[in-house]
Amino acid sequence: MRMKALVMVLGWMGVQAGAGAAGFALIEQNASGLGNAFAGQGASAQDASTVFFNPAGLLRIEGSQVAMAGHLISTSGKLKNDGSTLGALGDGGDAGGFAFLPNFYYAGDVRPGFKWGIGVNAPFGLKTEYDTPWAGQTQGVTSHIKTINVNPSIAWLYNDKVSVGMGINYQMAEVSLSNSVTAPAVNVLKMKGDDDAWGYNLGMLIKLDNNTRLGLAYRSELKYHLTGRATGPINGVIAADLTTPASASLSLFHRLNERWDLLADLSWTGWSSFDKLAVTGAVNALVPENWNDILRIGVGANYRQNDKWLWRVGTAYDQNAVPDAERRTVRLPDADRIWLAFGGQYKMSDKGWIDFGYAHLFFNEAAINHVEPPIRVKGRFDSYVNIVSAQYTHTF
Q: Domains in the chain and their CATH numbers?
């Protein structure tokens, strides 16, 4: 099925605009978690966005609830050339920019001990755009990955300590790539394809005591067979396979006292499923990727000032998925990053509240020494990301 609905505008990932988790995953699935750098989201279950992070957390929501969030993402990514074959053509400028990413969630009652919910979000996204002419134009000019995910979920109370949940994911993906087929001239080949895929997510929430919860969550791989067309110097039907990675998390929420909460998590993402970027048909191209599985660790805290105001702070460390400079590409460069985040919540009433947050992501300099014969791109990427998020939640 082709993606004919309006595709949400996504923040782009990787070293240049890693608006969230490593690779081209997007962790910005609510605004209520941004202030904690999304630490402990599988155990906090503070609103209906738990559909994404851990569906078992739906049982912590009283009544029916709607949560709507939006994220404004500002990115910067620049290559410092150092030995590229076409280095005289320039560095491609700043491949960053601005993007807006929305999320929507609903939670409702089924019967005592059972809840259901649904989320509409974008778990993956990529956007890199270089000025032309530039030194890496034969390897990439633009790279876009857009997704829409619809995630109905259910949760049930196993006993007074344990709740479990599961969800089905129907996800649509659209991929657009372009590059120059000649050098030093710019003669742009455009390739575009789309597909849909099915996956699932599972969760468990364990109440260790009245103040402490442990969350376990898993999201499955999704496998796409993208089909579309190439236009430009080459015209015709093309196809490509894309597998998005499985992920798992272990989260902790602990209420220290009446004022303070502590949150933490450890997450794994199986990026080794992204082993190559291969296009067949009118265009035949193969770029080995061979990414690594990676870990993310986050810690955060909440401070309740009074009945209306709550404040959040958090930090996280994301490993990068790219194994070395030779495997790092201009389409999907990646680097280790550190999050620093803060935010808060204002309760307008017992039924409605606003969450908000800000995060800055610091990236390590990332070396690239990638060859797609006969052109080499060599240098270092400098990048950073700023994220501002807001969310309105209403309980009925």
A: 14-391 (2.40.160.60)
